[in-house]
């Protein structure tokens, strides 16, 4: 469904992503893990068209989308729930949810109800300014907002950042549910343990390169991964 | 008493024009964080558009041409002078805006000469009406009403429509907005279109009461309206409205008490005081960002 081929991204003189290739198949949950500055966010931002790759191609459903603008990419069904949430603080919760469906012209009621079912707190806070939500609530709002575009593939950049373990578990359960409804997921996580448990396929990124790949289970059991990312010795 | 009433009406009327122009500054600042120094000159160009179209067409057509041409001019300026600088530091865009301002002033001097050109009398607008024993022209009456109606429509547009939602989103966060599928360039063009359209309306109302246009007609009103926007809190539409009326009315009162020469200086004293006392203006953005 989504294919990244030899992707390179430069910032000035720095090469943040140094020619990575990976694939996301329809219906899968794929995760990219790696330490700070590995180039995970940059990869997702390149797929969304927010940064221009210096080399390589991004193929979605057989179509080269490398040079297409962000709003067109969203229109094709690729959505990014960005690092740091980036909700609109001076819009209400419900406006934030609606703006996620900006490109849609059909009726939103069903999807709004679905968001309310997944995140009941958002229904309660419907008319509150989004900037006054707690961090975890803002993260839920960001996920709900991304869902509103009815994506075919949803990319999430560290959705668990700064959240209490219980909320993290909740968000991961919801991701699983979203996936079971047919949305393909490409997930970046610092929380490698949970991400690998959830993922069908995982890639490990290190200073702009993919250094390892495998199923979530394979990587969970891999001693090197255990040591470097799961924080345990064998 | 009658002259006093006359002054009050004049003040409100000038204030309405100022408000319409100030909104243009505020909208553009809101979305690009740019003080569009060319805005006063767009207002001045609208004056010339009216003069020339009125010479050929009946007045309703001339008004429409003026509104359309001014809107188009605003969009073109953004396309050619600002949008190529989207990634550049803000200072570069600001300098580009100053450049456009001089360009419009000099171009109109070159094309239309530096001499004031008589502004056409739109039938009806200059008609005198009696208010008790004060006589004011109809336009003096109409201006504040038109202004308020336009501001109400504009607030509706910004708060209730999809494109308004896009404008608010883009003004907060370019990237997040584009991740929603919002097209940045379209939204920014639209914002310039609205600002320029309001400047055109303001121009018709303003010049009707002044009777002539020359290439620097936009310079001082432009600056005053910028002050009005800062006074109200740049970025805020109600703020620009209030600022416009405030500057317009106080300026007229100062003239009324015989301090005409001081009235322009007053505007800038207001600017300085406001920047010192409350830099964000009356309704300046209070940010509730939480990261
Ligand atoms: N706009 C930018 N300008 C310059 N350098 C950048 C820019 N964006 C990212 N980088 C650099 O690219 C590298 C990769 O950054 P990226 O944000 O992709 O890392 P990451 O894997 O998401 O890290 P983290 O887990 O900390 O979010 C970093 O060294 C970063 O400093
Ligand atoms: Mg990151």
CA radius of gyration of chain B: 19 Å
* Average pLDDT rating of chain B: 92
Uncertain spans of chain B:
287-291
Radius of gyration from the alpha-carbon trace of chain A, in angstroms:
17 Å
Helix/strand order of chain B: HHHHEEEHHHHEHHH
Q: Mean pLDDT of chain A, rounded to whole units?
A: 93
Q: What does this 3D model show about the protein?
A:
The complex is a heterodimer of chains A (234) and B (291). Chain A has ten helices and ten strands. With 234 residues, chain A is an alpha/beta fold. Chain A starts with a strand and ends in a 6-residue tail after the last helix. The model of chain A has no long low-confidence stretch (mean pLDDT 93). Chain B is mainly alpha-helical. Chain B has one domain (13-218). Helices cover 72% and strands 4% of the residues of chain B. Chain B has helices at 2-32, 39-56, 59-82, 90-112, 138-160, 162-172, 174-179, 184-208, 219-232, 237-256, 263-277, and strands at residues 117-118, 128-131, 134-137, 212-213. In chain B, helix 1 packs antiparallel against helix 8 (184-208) and helix 5 packs across helix 6. The interface between A and B is medium-sized, with 32 and 21 residues. Bound molecules: adenosine-5'-triphosphate and magnesium ion (MG). Magnesium ion is lined by residues 40-41, 83, 157 of chain A.
SSE topology sketch:
The complex is a heterodimer of chains A (234) and B (291).
Chain A: E1 2-11, E2 14-24, E3 29-34, H1 40-47, E4 55-60, E5 63-64, H2 70-75, E6 78-81, H3 93-99, H4 109-118, H5 120-124, H6 135-147, E7 153-157, H7 165-180, E8 184-189, H8 192-198, E9 201-206, E10 209-215, H9 216-221, H10 223-228
Parallel strand pairs in A: 3-8, 3-9, 6-7, 7-8
Antiparallel strand pairs in A: 1-2, 1-4, 4-5, 9-10
Helix pairs in contact in A: 3-6
Chain B: H1 2-32, H2 39-56, H3 59-82, H4 90-112, E1 117-118, E2 128-131, E3 134-137, H5 138-160, H6 162-172, H7 174-179, H8 184-208, E4 212-213, H9 219-232, H10 237-256, H11 263-277
Antiparallel strand pairs in B: 1-4, 2-3
Helix pairs in contact in B: 1-5, 1-8, 1-9, 1-10, 2-3, 2-4, 2-8, 2-9, 3-8, 5-6, 5-8, 6-8, 9-10, 9-11, 10-11
